[in-house]
Amino acid sequence: MALRKRKKTPVESLPAIATRARVNHLDWDLVRVFLEVSRTGGMSAAAQRLEMDVSTVSRRLERLESDLGVVVFERNRDGVVATEAGEKLMPAAEEMARAMGDLGVALDAVEAEAEGVVRLTAPPGIADVFVAPALARFHTLHPQVRVDLDASVGHAELTRGEADIALRTRRPERPDLVSKKLVTTRSLPAGAAGYIASLGTLRRAEDARWIGWGHDRANVGEARWLSQYVAQPPVLRTSSFSAQLNAAAAGVGLMLAPEPYLGRFGLFPVTPGRALLESWEALPMSDLWLVGHVALRRVPRVAVLWDFVMAELTRSGNDE
Length: 320
Description:
By secondary structure, the chain is an alpha/beta fold. The chain is built from 12 helices and 13 strands. Residues about 1-15 have low confidence and may be disordered.
């Protein structure tokens, strides 16, 4: 039985493969120079349009010709004239220019629309009580923006890209960070309605049960106030702010709670007697700052969350 010969598959020529490899690595800036020289008919005019000097235009044309392996212009005293190869390349170069223009339009559209992930870092109490519940409204307004919320005591470093926006109790000093003060709040001795009623007017700090911070948070303003003005130890120590709020709401004792938290947890400030007025004047105050990196502040996805958080927390801080 006779054997059939296998039909040969056309093999791409080595010159064609080499040409494609050169085109695949072609620099758009070189093509742009080629187009401007073709359109203006001279290197001087092209250099003006491109805001380059003539020698730079000449070097880039030489590099383009070297990369493509063809001469695209003949140079003479009157200027330059496109070679046959240059004329054949012109339609493809124009098409490349249109594609680059389309890419720019598409990029502008992407940048103009709030979309993607924004990383927000905030102290646990603020994140839990004010930020997280408000995100339902945010996502209604901006459904294409996703939020990564880091609720931790430690500071994520914005300058190292660990977060896009931060809520801080201190204003940063770095010039590459932008900040906006949202509110200034005072911490008040407060507790559950029943416990506050049982105390009446508080004449001595020792007449109340107190909830304090754990030893690892002894440096916070509320912990320092307690150590200075309340002689007896707290009946509860915890470094969890959430635990303090819930314990106070349950009637365990008084805690120093920033004013915006009182209504959220059904807490009421205790009325101080005359002997306590001086210590009440020293109750800790704290600021809340919204912080971001200068380079990211106007990125749409970051900007919409920035504006939302600023409006939300400014309003919450004034709801007393």
